[in-house]
Amino acid sequence: MSFEEYKNLWVFLETEEGKAKNVGYELLTPGRRLADETGEKLVAVVIGKDTEEVVKNAVAYGADQVLVVEGYEYFNYNTDTFSYALEQLITKYKPSIVLIGATNNGRDIGPRVACRLRTGLTADCTGLDIDEETGNMAWTRPAFGGNLMARILCPDTRPQMGTVRPGVFKKGEKDETRTAEVIYEDIHLEADKVKTKLLERVKEVAEAVNLEEAEIIVSGGRGLGEAKNFSYIRELAEVLGGAVGSSRAAVDAGWIPHAHQVGQTGKTVAPKIYIACGISGAIQHLAGMSGSDTIIAINKDPEAPIFDVADYGIVGNLFDVIPALIEEIKTLKNS
User: Fold this and answer.
1) Is the full-model pTM beyond 0.85?
2) CA gyration radius for the chain?
3) How far apart are CA 5 and CA 208, in angstroms?
4) Which backbone phi and psi does 63 adopt, to 5 degrees?
5) pLDDT for 59-78, tens place per residue?
6) Which candidate, 28, 20, 8, 25, places its Cα nearest to that of 47?
7) Could you report the per-residue pLDDT of 270-293, keeping only the tens digit for each?
8) DSSP at 128
9) CATH label, 205-334, candidates 3.20.20.150, 3.40.50.720, 3.30.530.20, 3.40.50.1220
10) E strand intervals along 119-180
């Protein structure tokens, strides 16, 4: 089967209220590399309202071309309108590869559009490459509970689509001098075909577990002993202005919801500071946070594997160490 009419690599830049999620900018990094390997253009796709800054950033982070769909109905994410717009763009321009961030919205729009286009979609990817033998996109994702890494190709249909975990890749260097072609497409779905309507967006709920965007994450593991001891983690995260994460062991024990889980079967994060409290450092957990700029580990076992990747390690009882840290941080803030 010939796919000569399909060309270029697309990155979907998810927007909410005129701002892009970080994962979109992150995906422009591997997108740039893969586009250069295939000799094709890197195209950023922006659907939203008041997106001037997003378009400017897309170019600065490496896009050769930006496709923009603007409209009041795109201010907040809506399954019907966003899916229709992306489907229309893909049908018209025929990209070879489409990268989408594996956010809640990305996990919604990706399979919906792939189904309408009768193509495949590889979900929750952690690795992206071009297969040397076939020239197809090679998607890597965890399988069998994170115990294996599967390499998946989509040789029979186009476009090749995949959702990619936030935090797996880092944003590239921003180059404000870059220029690119910007194309505006006028796409609107008739009101009577929109089946869902946003009545209210409660930011306190929508952003409560936003590990992918957090600059500081404090995570708790099996060493906490029981659910109520996550109060230590929450208090430290609060004084630092960070988010609360956890290991798989804590989630499996029912101490905290899965939305907080970091690791191969949870979320991949890359904050500026990651503090691991009572986490031994199993390979599945390390895969989800080893890209952090600075890793601080607190564990009473000096042989814990977490210390092998930590920039700073504290050997001690977390129930003594965390309260002391909290008091010290409060003192510094008040001085």
Assistant:
1) no
2) 21
3) 43
4) -70, 140
5) 999 999 999 999 999 999 99
6) 20
7) 899 999 999 999 988 998 998 899
8) E
9) 3.40.50.1220
10) 121-125, 127-130, 137-143, 148-153, 160-164
